[in-house]
Design goal:
- The chain is α+β, with helices and mostly antiparallel strands.
- Helices cover 20% and strands 38% of the residues.
- The strands form two sheets. The chain has a two-stranded parallel ribbon with strand order 1-2. A two-stranded antiparallel sheet has the order 3-4.
Amino acid sequence: ISLLEILIVVVIYFDLPAKQQVLARVSRVLAPGGVLFLGGAETTYGLDDGWERVQVGRTSFYRPAMAGGAP
């Protein structure tokens, strides 16, 4: 499996366990420094604490959270 730098995922229609599985798999294949884009109504909040939301203007994306909470 090659590592991905940018990944766009739509999980809004999945049930909770499926969403958690998708995020876990994404975190394994995302390249160092890679980012995850979710739909506007989607979030990792309450699904997986291993992601940090980054806001840039009107756009946001997620990247793996660093150990200890430092970005």
